[in-house]
Write a structure and sequence with these properties.
The protein has 13 helices and 3 strands; from the N terminus they run H-E-E-E-H-H-H-H-H-H-H-H-H-H-H-H. A hairpin with a 3-residue loop joins strand 1 and strand 2. Among the domains are: 43 residues, no CATH class; 111 residues, Cytochrome p450-Terp, domain 2 (Orthogonal Bundle), CATH 1.10.230. The protein has a 3-stranded antiparallel β-sheet with strand order 1-2-3. The chain is mostly helical.
């Protein structure tokens, strides 16, 4: 438990290491004047990274982050987080409530932004092991043995598709922006080659993002924070689609759609 002096120093005052607003003067983020230095000069993803991490990235990295966000939020209501947005729309919730609920649903260990924590942890540990002498094949074999012969490496394989159609356009952009393959991404492709030959599996967008951003010097928690709102636009799109249709018409159910297997009808006491 913190001692009383720690709490007493926080009484009656709000401190920030990020920045703040000074009435009549402007707003600041990590020493940068937002209105005088950044508006009209920095991109939104440069500003996002500055606010979240305290780092003002070069424009090409911010453009890369924007592009991969486009790859990770599609307006398809079959996707779970988007389905929540659509259900909120058909129930006539507000757009903010719908989008917030969908974003929260994507904070999942199965998909969305949270698996990036495991994806980054894997490729960064794999690189340390590789530098200590393990080959890509040995790294794969070790991971497969952990799961009794199954490929369960975060960043590789997909449950519903073979390959990942998002990686080629991101690779083209990476090259166009002048980024070279760093050690993490180089190893990620070597691991993919082993998986492709031995298990017919390949890298997914999580693995690509984890490796690329690891090469840019980010850690797992930083990447997770940057991608906190990654599904937002797709969720909002599906909300709008549903809210502009008659109420309660998104995935309605009939009573006989329910396979009820509980006790039979009975009188209520």
């Amino acid at each position: 438990m913190k001692n009383r002096e720690t709490w007493d120093r926080q009484r009656g005052v709000i401190r920030s290491r990020k920045g703040g607003w000074f009435a009549g003067k402007g707003a600041f983020s990590h020493g940068h004047s937002i209105l005088e230095e950044l508006v009209g000069e920095a991109s939104y993803f440069q500003m996002l990274t500055l606010n979240v991490l305290g780092l003002l990235p070069e424009r090409r990295l911010a453009d890369w982050l924007e592009a991969v966000h486009i790859c990770l939020s599609w307006p398809d209501p079959r996707i779970w987080c988007n389905q929540i947005g659509a259900l909120a729309g058909t129930a006539r919730a507000s757009v903010v409530a719908a989008t917030s609920a969908g974003v929260l649903a994507a904070d999942s260990t199965m998909y969305g932004s949270r698996p990036l924590l495991d994806g980054v942890a894997f490729i960064q540990q794999a690189l340390r092991d590789h530098q200590d002498g393990l080959s890509a094949a040995e790294i794969v074999q070790r991971e497969v043995q952990k799961h009794r012969g199954k490929v369960r490496i975060t960043g590789y394989a997909r449950p519903l598709a073979s390959g990942d159609e998002r990686i080629p356009p991101m690779e083209q952009l990476t090259t166009r922006l002048g980024f070279e393959h760093g050690p993490h991404l180089t190893l990620a492709y070597a691991i993919e080659e082993v998986l492709r030959l031995d298990y017919k599996e390949s890298m997914n967008i999580n693995g690509y993002v984890s490796a690329f951003l690891s090469d840019q010097g980010f850690n797992a928690e930083q990447i997770y924070r940057l991608f906190a709102m990654v599904v937002m636009s797709g969720v909002t799109a599906c909300y709008v689609d549903a809210v502009e249709r008659p109420a309660e018409t998104f995935l309605p159910l009939r009573c006989d759609d329910i396979d009820y297997q509980g006790p039979p009808p009975r009188d209520v006491p």
